[in-house]
Write a structure and sequence with these properties.
Chain B: It comes from Faunimonas pinastri. Chain B: One of its GO terms (biological process) is double-strand break repair. The complex is a heterodimer of chains A (201) and B (244). In chain A, helix 1 (8-17) packs across helix 2 and helix 2 packs across helix 3 (39-56). Helices cover 40% and strands 13% of the residues of chain A. Chain A folds into 2 domains: 8-56, Helicase, Ruva Protein, domain 3 (Orthogonal Bundle); 66-172, Dna Topoisomerase Vi A Subunit, Chain: A, domain 2 (3-Layer(aba) Sandwich). In chain A, helix 4 links the parallel strand 3 (81-88) and strand 4. Chain A is globular. Chain A is of the alpha/beta class. Chain A contains 7 helices and 6 strands; from the N terminus they run H-H-H-E-E-E-H-E-H-E-H-E-H. The longest helix of chain A is centred in the N-terminal third of the chain and has 18 residues, at 39-56. Chain B folds into 2 domains: 2-77, Nucleic acid-binding proteins (OB fold (Dihydrolipoamide Acetyltransferase, E2P), Beta Barrel), CATH 2.40.50; 84-148 and 186-239, no CATH class. Chain B has helices at 78-81, 85-98, 108-120, 126-141, 173-176, 201-220, 229-240; strands at residues 2-15, 19-26, 30-36, 53-59, 68-75, 160-163, 170-172, 184-185. In chain B, strand 2 and strand 3 (30-36) form a beta hairpin. The N and C termini of chain B lie far apart (49 Å). The chains are: A alpha/beta (201), B alpha+beta (244). The A-B interface holds A 21-22, 114, 116-118, 121-122, 148-150, 153-154, 157-158, 160-161, 175, 187-193, 196 and B 11-13, 17, 23, 45-47, 49-52, 73, 75-83, 85, 88-89, 91-92, 95-96, 99, 228-230, 233, 236-237.
């Protein structure tokens, strides 16, 4: 077995970096080497930032977002439209919608989708608090912004069923031709959905 | 090892950031799993959605390996099915049922029924009728088929109206009248060879109650499972809608 050329601390750093999305063992080694070469400029600030984030990050008790304050920055923003609630699968989806500045509504993070194959049922999702929020009278519209996958849409239909008795308008994102998309290259399902949801022009 | 054929996708599980484990049902090979490289790419993600019919080629060094699938779409219906509650819940329910059969165990009749059902999952109440028939077939394929050919008491082949929960055999209206509160109603559409009109919602509900009883007793309870939650969602979706 080849002897390790670095100490256990660096091995540990490489091992942890390789568990990040987009990084494998090889790219983790490169990243670790780069960090160590720029110890003052990168490694130490990164370690401090990671420690500070780890100490203060928490799950928002209202929407399930990740932030350093509770309620999170979105939930505590008074300029947000409190009558619109956007339901997303994950925090990454919330960030994507915020990047796109697509809505001024508030959010609710489910924490996943119903997936029998992975053993994720309704109890594993953040659904009971969604029901409470829908019933508090402030919310007029719930937008189901879940992925256009079978699992995402199963979750959307389940949420719609669950909220059937509430006095809230439930909408979902349109499915169709993406910006820059060429019809010739689109899959049949997207084309069929786009044709079905066509709008007056 | 290699084989090619037509398959219907019944499930996809993420594997790392770019790949996925695809679960398909085939006519000759049964339920089969394999890895699809790049399944989360923009091109392949819509293809590997459950409900789609695919042309698949499976390759592995040894037969017992997970192996890799190469997939090409034949019928991409997932996008259409997603819009309907009955279809999306039905699709998940079919996946749950097919996971009861062992991997790589061929069930051509179940494949044929699945292929028909995925075409009509958004057609109510036909979807419910076909689902009840699929559930009867599943029981039969697993060795717990109901005998709906003749009355268990009199041998009559006409006017069958009940099923005995004990034996799983049909009972005629006359013979079962005295015990009707202990028997399960048998909707006529499950035993009629041909008919002119679609069954009403009550008959469909009876059929789903009948199959639920035997599915739970023979297939789910012995595995310490209860009927999948998604079955209630499917029932609500198909029974709440008005008749065609």
């Amino acid at each position: 077995m080849p002897q390790s050329v670095v100490g256990p601390e660096i091995e540990r750093l490489i091992q942890l970096l390789s568990r990040l999305p987009g990084l494998g063992p090889r790219s983790a080694r490169r990243a670790a080497l780069h960090l160590m070469k720029k110890k003052d400029l990168l490694l130490e600030p990164l370690a401090r930032a990671a420690a500070e984030a780890a100490a203060s990050v928490s799950v928002c008790s209202v929407c399930g977002n990740l932030d350093t304050r509770d309620p999170c920055s979105v939930c505590s923003d008074p300029l947000r439209d409190a009558s619109v609630l956007v339901v997303v699968e994950d925090v990454g989806d919330l960030w994507a919608l915020e990047r796109a500045m697509a809505t001024r509504g508030r959010y609710h993070v489910l924490g996943g989708t119903l997936s029998p194959l992975d053993g994720i049922g309704p109890d594993q999702l953040n659904l009971s608090s969604l029901m409470h929020r829908a019933q508090d009278g402030e919310i007029k519209e719930i937008i189901l912004a879940v992925n256009a996958t079978v699992e995402g849409q199963t979750t959307a239909h389940y949420v719609t069923d669950m909220l059937a008795g509430t006095d809230v308008r439930i909408t979902r994102l349109a499915h169709g031709v993406p910006v820059g998309g060429e019809l010739d290259y689109l899959d049949d399902g997207t084309l069929a959905a786009a044709m079905k949801s066509r709008t007056p022009f | 090892m290699e084989w090619s054929g037509e398959a219907i996708a019944i499930g996809t599980r993420r594997l790392g950031e770019t790949d996925a484990i695809l679960e398909v049902m085939t006519r000759d090979k049964g339920r089969w799993l394999g890895m699809v490289r790049g399944a989360r790419s923009r091109r392949l993600r819509p293809v590997v959605q459950p409900g789609n019919t695919l042309s698949v080629t499976w390759r592995a060094r040894l037969d017992e390996h997970l192996g890799n699938f190469r997939v090409e779409p034949i019928a991409e219906r997932a996008g259409t099915l997603m819009a309907s509650g009955s279809a999306i819940f039905g699709l998940q329910l079919l996946g749950e049922y097919l996971r009861l059969i062992p991997e790589r165990d061929p069930h051509p009749r179940l494949y044929e029924a699945l292929a028909l059902l995925v075409e009509y999952l958004d057609d109510i109440p036909l979807a419910a009728e076909l689902m009840a028939r699929f559930e009867l077939l599943l029981l039969d394929e697993m060795g717990f088929g109901l005998d709906l050919s003749e009355c268990a008491a009199t041998g009559a082949t006409e006017d069958l109206g009940y099923v005995s929960p004990k034996s799983g055999r049909a009972v005629s209206h006359d013979a079962g009248r005295a015990y009707h509160d202990r028997l399960l109603p048998l909707p006529a559409f499950l035993v009629e060879a041909r008919r002119d009109a679609a069954p009403d919602l009550e008959a469909v509900a009876d059929a789903l109650r009948l199959t639920a009883f035997f599915l739970e007793r023979h297939l789910f309870a012995p595995r310490s499972l209860s009927l999948p939650d998604v079955r209630s969602s499917f029932e609500r979706a198909v029974l709440a809608k008005p008749q065609r």
